[in-house]
Amino acid sequence: MYRATDVQPDDTYLWADTSPTDSDATPSLPLPEILVDKRIQTVYFMLGSAALLPWNALITATPFFLSRLTGSPLRATFSSYMSSSYTGCMLMFIARATATSKQNSPSRRFFIATGSLTILVASLCLSTFIFVPPDWFFFFVIINAIGQAAGAAFLSTAVYAGASLFGAPYMQAVMAGQAAVAVAVSGVQVLSSMASIWGATPDLMDIPSEFGNTKAGVAEAKAARMFFGISTLFLIATFMAYRWLTTLPVYKARVGILEQQAKALSSSSDVEERRALLSSGFDMDSSDNKSQLWRVFKANIPYELAAFLGFTVTLAVFPPITVSIMSTNPAVHPLLFSAVHFLVFNLGDFAGRYICSFPRLIMWSARRVLTIAILRALFIPIFLICNVQRTSTEIISPIISSDFLYLSILAAFGLTNGYVSTLCMLGAPSLEHNPRLKGRREDVDVAATLASFGIISGLAIGSFTSFAVRAVICDCNPFRQ
């Protein structure tokens, strides 16, 4: 999308737009080259990682959670319940965060959300040392997931709004950071899984255990403990990096307008400040704010729908269904195969986001992006003919019996997920390539926030859809406890 045209000695460089424009995305405003500060770009990379870290920490720890639910009837549908709880609640929280995005300080949101997420992830790390009854553990994880959903929702809106005001290179850094943290977490899981299962038998995680028996799930607990601990440390580092960012003059110049808006709305007596903000082109009235949200939402429906459908398909099968697909090689430990499967998807997702940095691979056409998002639904029946472990005693031979072929399909699934989501987040708030914004610079942060709302909506609906997809492979009611 952009290329560096000149490297400056003070960690900054110029990015010039060289991307071809599709027929339905004629530039509205010819904007100048963007001066990019690599230090700030790195911070937004970290912010993107922090925004998606809670979700990745939860789904990557699925083998550990399942090991603690051995013998419980909740084990079979735990993945669907966890993803549905997280994404469903996050949808409600992000709806609230989006509706009040103009009335709250981005920095205040970030600090409170990040602090809360740090405590919640640290508590999951501590849970690897403690054994409780399966039912208690189930509700602990679900409540923890709901708390993380709230933190991630308010954190995401603050990050997307700030990145959109800085420009496309920073938004791309956010998207790349989201995928990078998934790769890092799953990579750590693979390494820790290899170390944990050294000398273990492949059926270790299937050994039934009584409460307090530490022989079952030891490998899973060690793996989860490591990446929960690393995740906690990373959130602390991100907190400190953002605090440094807010002290920079360039941050105050670009994102400071949102801080001023929040301050003006919280102090209705400050009439002069409200008038100053209104005169600068930013509407502060609550009713007008809702009107702006609705206007931008209607204008950007193709991007928002593409983001929604893309993640609906993804969460319908990943991880609730894909985690139940086992290797056809009995010598491969289930924990290791599960860890590798997460890594393969996340590498594909990262690659899909990374290729958006190449101009010839960018699609600014919202219609084409929407078409790709719809076609991704074909992946669902493909996964169902792989080596899915069903609950029935009937042995069903998989049509796709090759582990390599399955992992290749999974990589393509991840690549298209990252590609579609990045195109949506880059195109929706782009004044250069999205004529639907009609050159309104005050709509940029709103467009980015609404596109992220489409992503979260897709995550939520996809999670609930996973119950129906799982019903196809189970011989029982998926809602049965």
Overall description:
This protein has 481 residues and is mainly α. The protein has 17 helices and three strands. It has helices spanning 38-60, 62-68, 78-99, 106-127, 134-166, 168-196, 218-245, 249-254, 256-266, 271-279, 286-299, 301-317, 334-354, 366-375, 379-384, 403-427, 444-473; strands at 2-7, 12-17, 34-37. The protein has a three-stranded antiparallel beta sheet. The chain is globular. Mean pLDDT is 78; it is low at 1-9, 25-32, 203-216, 268-284 and 475-481.
- Poorly predicted segments: 1-9, 25-32, 203-216, 268-284, 475-481
The profile of the biggest β sheet is: 3 strands, antiparallel
Please report the distance between the alpha carbons of the first and last residues. 49 Å
* Mean pLDDT reading: 78
Order of helices and strands: EEEHHHHHHHHHHHHHHHHH
Physical arrangement of strands within the biggest beta sheet: 1-2-3
Overall structural class, as computed from helix and strand content, comes to mainly alpha
**Helix count, per DSSP?**
17
Q: What is the rounded Rg?
A: 23 Å
General form = globular
Strand content: under 5%
Helical content class: 55-70%
Task: Tell me the number of strands.
Answer: 3
Protein name: Nucleoside transporter-domain-containing protein
